[in-house]
Write a structure and sequence with these properties.
Layout (H helix, E strand, L loop, with lengths): L8 H11 L4 E2 L14 H11 L4 E2 L1 E3 L3 H12 L5 E5 L3 H7 L3 H14 L4 E4 L5 H6 L5 E2 L3 H7 L2 E4 L3 E4 L14 H13 L11 H14 L6 H10 L3 H16 L10
Parallel strand pairs: 1-2, 3-4, 4-5, 5-6
Antiparallel strand pairs: 7-8
Length: 258
Amino acid sequence: MKKGTNRDLNDLISVYKTLKADCYMSLDIPTLPCQPPDPRNFENFKALVDSGLNVVPIIHGYCPDAMEKALDFYRQFKPSVIAYGGMVPPSMDRAGGRRIAVILFHYLREMTQGKEKLHVLGVGSPFMRKVYFSADSADTATYRVKAIMGMVLIPGRGERYVGIRTIKWHVRSAIKEELQELLDFLESTHFPYDADLNTWIGRSMINAWVLTHSEYGDSPDAEFSRRVSRLSQEELRELAESACKKINSRNASLNEFV
């Protein structure tokens, strides 16, 4: 999206076939929220399926009409799982409001309920799991990305820098008390390895453990998500259309939906 990088579909198929994975993600061109999908998304998906791969279709935060048409297209192939993608905080902040992602998620959740499992891409943190609480599954690369940058995740405090570089990516260095909190948490939750803060692999293991064994308190986004989840499919569609209209007219403030 940022640099216009292209990936050759045949090259991707060759790589995928060496992996022997249970399933694969389609090769999509992400769009900003409430925009129509790129037609190549559907062409790429069909080509991947035709090559014999078990491909998970991805529906991004399209406008409601486009979401419905995308779902109809993918259902021809009888997928057991649908992925919801392209709506992680960085892209949403750029679009002007994260809550449209929540509205569109619940609309897709309502359409897939009892039919397909819904996986949400990139929202595996405790905070985001509270927001996307009705998803069947989620994933995140945060644990390893932060680790490579010299950071560890401390329950209730977020990331702290423990590396030795002068560049800290505007993240606070961990103080002794915070590190002790982290070590106490690892011990109380029976972390099965030595707590290694000095290597990125060690930090990755700690971060993954914190992500999967810690809880995040309530937040305005989580409360908003719970309220939206109680709407009917018809009400969700109306709300999504209204929000998308605001996004597309460059008035991206969704405060009135709070």
